[in-house]
Design goal:
Blueprint lengths: L2 H22 L2 H6 L10 H11 L4 E5 L5 H9 L3 E4 L3 H15 L3 E5 L3 H4 L2 H10 L3 E7 L9 H4 L2 H9 L5 E7 L6 H8 L7 H19 L20 H13 L3 E5 L10 H11 L3 E3 L19 H7 L2 E5 L18 E6 L2 H4 L11 E4 L2 H11 L8 H22 L8 H11 L5 E5 L2 H9 L8 E2 L10 H11 L5 E6 H7 L2 H7 L5 E6 L4 H11 L12 H7 L3 E5 L7 H13 L4 E6 L13
Parallel strand pairs: 1-2, 1-3, 3-4, 4-5, 6-7, 6-8, 8-9, 9-10, 11-12, 11-13, 13-14, 14-16, 15-16
GO molecular function: acetolactate synthase activity; flavin adenine dinucleotide binding; magnesium ion binding; thiamine pyrophosphate binding
Organism: Anguilla anguilla
Keywords: Metal-binding, Thiamine pyrophosphate
């Protein structure tokens, strides 16, 4: 090999290395895409444009400098910025918007503690399968490639949140991608650069990185929503289920929150269920699907009904702790399971139950197809009638318990019955608590679909303030009730300030028994101690007053005026004031035996 060949090889390697380095440093990219150094525009505007294109109406936040450009840009484009008193509340509010509106909910938080404060709320949204976009700020960083203004694809994140099994996604924006070029340039400038060649290299690298970061940032680009993938049952699967249901004499449907997800409108699902004529047990967001007094909605004695049923349809319902991991299902029953998530579809089927048919697909769309396939067929009417008779017997017994005097204060069951009787037909009920809220789930009857909000499978306390805020913004003309335990109220009572500032007048019904009763109910008889379960009969109504709302204290002496006080709270809400009813309640044995782990 002669010297010229060797030198040629070396030269080729050097040139190749230089080309690769230029590519990695974005030099070629900058030749194609212009860096507009004089432009006052910033990355927050790009974020806002994408959100507006996706129909986002609200962004919930607790302000921080890392995300200020996003908030300002969103407000300029007509997206309402709603600031809360805790980052978790912002995520809970976005969760509620996602559930009620059928679009993605959005929260934006600042870096560090702002982000970590959202962890529980994000996990709750994941477990509840709520499509949610969490935007976070971050410290400036020297990024690789073309720069974060192009590298972060929000549209993919939003599509991912809504596809398959919906859930939260997180997109982080380093601060140097959100502010205008001239401000970032000022921050990037080396205050005391080293002299000589090294100083020039450092200065060039920083300047090149900055230009690379903004190169092509303001070029026109598509912001339209990307397609959302929703798994669907196949025709053959539907036909198999049509044949099974048509032969059933005692079928039962267990409808879960997942059935309320887009793309199927909830009113169409309701019509499909009424057409099938099959008795239904409704859980989570599906509560209220059949209205207040449907003959098909069975609220009591679920365990007994499942033992007797010859076919059970799990429509978005999971065999987790809420169904005793599947142990409540009879091995004699044919079981049809429909769920978007493959893991949830057959959860615990290796131990306690076996699906006859397992379909990874959308539960709402499946019910419509099943109804069409069974057109003209209805469940034998004596079966739902017998279950409804059992319902009435149980509810009459509950009313008798509600009429009993407690040792002190008011009977919580009677309070819940009166609130349920008086709340408006358009009411939305937010459930946030343990024992008192557990009783409310048996007594209060949502008036229609998407009128009940509870945490979901994660069972998080503290959702009340955020859920109610999101619900009232989505449905400003509806009465929004938060049913609080006195323990759970402590997490979000500060949001009465938010209700006042953002003119979202909700009604909070607080069952105040000065105790973490759901825990104490088991801890005391099993372990003989009430340690850490005791609270105080705190003046929560005064707290509401201090935050600009209106508080009412209700004790046994007010029993005869209870209806009048509730009506007064409703008037105050209609007039624009958030209201808190601090109801002192006593103990009952209504929920003895309920689980808290």
């Amino acid at each position: 090999m002669d010297i010229s060949t060797v030198l040629g090889g070396i030269l080729g390697c050097v040139l190749g290395g230089l080309v690769l380095a230029a590519y990695r440093l974005g030099v070629f990219y900058q030749l194609i895409h212009k860096t507009e150094t004089k432009s006052p525009r910033h990355g927050g505007e790009s974020v806002a444009e994408v959100l507006r294109a996706h129909g986002v109406k609200f962004v919930f936040t607790l302000v921080g400098g890392h995300i200020s450009p996003i908030l300002v840009a969103c407000e300029k484009l007509g997206i309402r910025i709603v600031d809360t008193r805790h980052e978790a509340t912002a995520v809970f509010a976005a969760d509620a918007v996602a559930r009620l509106s059928g679009t993605i909910g959005v929260a934006a938080v600042t870096a560090g503690p702002g982000l970590t404060n959202t962890v529980t709320a994000v996990k709750n949204a994941q477990m509840a399968e709520s499509p949610l976009l969490l935007i976070g700020g971050a410290a400036a960083t020297l990024l690789q490639g073309r720069g974060a203004l192009q590298d972060i694809d929000q549209m993919k994140a939003i599509a991912a949140a809504q596809s398959g099994t919906p859930g939260p996604v997180f997109v982080e924006f380093p601060i140097d991608t959100l502010y205008p070029f001239h401000l970032v340039e000022k921050e990037f400038a080396v205050k005391n650069p080293p002299k000589g060649l090294m100083g020039k290299v450092v200065a060039w690298y920083l300047h090149n990185h900055l230009k690379n970061l903004f190169a092509g940032a303001w070029e026109a680009r598509a912001v339209s929503p990307l397609p959302v993938h929703v798994p669907m049952a196949t025709d053959s699967q539907i036909q198999q289920c049509v044949e099974l249901v048509s032969r059933a004499k005692k079928p039962v449907i267990l409808l879960g929150s997942q059935a309320t997800l887009p793309p199927t409108p909830v009113d169409e699902i309701r019509k499909a269920l009424e057409s099938l004529g099959i008795p239904c047990f409704l859980g989570g967001m599906a509560r209220g699907m059949l209205g207040r007094d449907s003959p098909l909605h069975i609220r009591q004695n679920r365990r007994d009904a499942l033992k007797e049923a010859d076919l059970v349809l799990l429509a978005g319902t999971v065999c987790d702790f809420r169904l005793s991991y599947g142990r409540v299902l009879s091995r004699r029953s044919k079981i049809i399971a429909v769920n978007r998530d493959a893991g949830q579809l057959t959860k615990n089927s290796d131990m306690f139950w076996k699906p006859t048919v397992a379909i990874q697909g959308d539960a709402g769309s499946f019910l419509l197809s099943l109804s069409r396939g069974l057109k003209g067929h209805r469940c034998p009417e004596d079966w739902p009638r017998s279950l409804k008779d059992g319902d009435r017997t149980k509810e009459n017994s509950n009313r008798e318990k509600a009429a009993e005097k407690t040792e002190r204060h008011l009977n919580p069951l009677q309070v819940l019955h009166r609130a349920d009787a008086l709340m408006a037909e358009d009411s939305i009920i937010v459930a946030d608590g343990g024992d008192f809220v557990g009783s409310a789930a048996y007594i209060m009857r949502p008036r229609g679909p998407l009128r009940w909000l509870d945490p979901g499978a994660f069972g998080t306390l503290g959702v009340g303030g955020g859920f109610a805020l999101g619900a009232k913004l989505c449905r400003p003309d509806s009465e929004v009730w938060i049913v609080y335990g006195d323990g759970s109220l402590g997490y979000s009572v500060a949001e009465f300030d938010t209700f006042t500032r953002h003119k979202t007048p909700v009604i909070a019904l607080v069952g105040n028994d000065a105790c973490w009763s759901q825990i104490s109910r088991e801890q005391v008889p099993i372990l003989g101690s009430n340690v850490a379960c005791g609270l105080a009969f705190t003046d929560y109504h005064v707290v509401a007053d201090g935050y600009g709302g209106k508080g009412h204290l209700i004790g046994r002496e007010d029993e005869g005026r209870l209806d009048d006080i509730i009506r007064q709270a409703q008037r105050e809400s209609r007039e624009g004031t958030a209201t808190l009813l601090n109801v002192l309640i006593g103990k009952t044995n209504f929920r003895d035996g309920s689980i808290s782990v």
